[in-house]
Amino acid sequence: MHWLAFALRDLNCDVKFFTAGLSPISNLKGDHRLTASSFPLNKWYHFEGLDCFKWYAPFHPVNLRSELCNRLSALVFKHYGRLLHNSIRRIIAASDVVIVESCAWLMVLYHMLRRERFTSRIVYRVSDDLELMGVHPVLLTSELNVLRNSDYVSVPNQRLKAMVDAKFSGTSALDHHGIHADIFDSSPAATLRSGRKHAVFVGVGFLDQDFIEIASSAFRDIDYHIIGPIEPRFSRDNVIWYGEIPFAQTVPILKAADIALSPLKSLRSDVGVFADSLKILQYTYLGLPIVVPEAFGKNRPNFITYHPNDASTIVDAINRAINFRRNEVALKSSVYDWKVLALKLIGKDVTKVD
What we know:
Elements: H1 2-10, E1 16-22, H2 24-29, H3 32-35, E2 44-47, E3 50-56, H4 67-77, H5 86-93, E4 97-101, H6 105-115, E5 121-125, H7 130-133, H8 137-149, E6 152-155, H9 158-165, E7 173-174, E8 178-179, H10 181-186, E9 197-202, H11 209-218, E10 222-227, E11 239-243, H12 247-256, E12 259-261, H13 278-285, E13 290-293, E14 303-306, H14 311-322, H15 328-332, E15 336-337, H16 338-345
Parallel strand pairs: 1-3, 4-5, 5-6, 6-7, 8-15, 9-10, 9-12, 10-11, 12-13, 13-14
Antiparallel strand pairs: 2-3
Helix pairs in contact: 1-16, 6-8, 11-14
């Protein structure tokens, strides 16, 4: 969502950026949004041209992994939307456009929609499959109500579109993620170990570490760069675990890579919902071959599939990625700038993008 906010900023919009889903529960869970950031909580701060507010509430809804516990906790969690300070609520209500993604803000917006007369354009940008993510049931209820009351429902891929359209009587719009092309075009490539191939994974979860273990053992002449807040399960001299690093440091590594990896495992078999993720688009813009589970399908020419937990298909996929003939120009043309999506969401003419 922050990329959309930056795009709106660049289109000369006055943007207020809110973060939710933080509370003492987040501290107990080691939420990387708290541990990796020094930004203040419950105070306005200015960041790269945006007015930002990171809301830290007394509690927020989390799935307790028990039907009985979830039913009991719903008696408390359903009030989450009421906790937001009235001054923030007034700012939201006075906005021309309110854009919310798949997160705890759905509960705040639902609470406000029930009690206030909105003149704002309400946009729900469906960023995740909340059922797949295993959120608390009260958040699913709020999502359904926001879907029914939104002026525009936007989804980034076909799988999410089918899921969303089955939930309510309206129709969602298929709007793929974008990228900030100028950042990728202007950033230099990182200097990595010479004489070796380099494979990179970027993400915050669902990494299949069995894949990394198999691939790094079979191809010792490839360095595997793992970027994101992921706890390593093993160590090897050709696997580099970066943890979470700034995007400005990530892009040069991506530009120096030979192979992109998206070896995701899921709580369900529908891992293919990630086939049009932002990372996939970034890899595609750079013309990289992308090694993915076969559940992703073959809807992109740079997808190279393997069967999870099958060492022979993993080895075959890496070999095919090594020999992939890159065509960056052709792949770039299939990826759009964030400004195009930003204009669509606020209801403006997309032909006005510079």
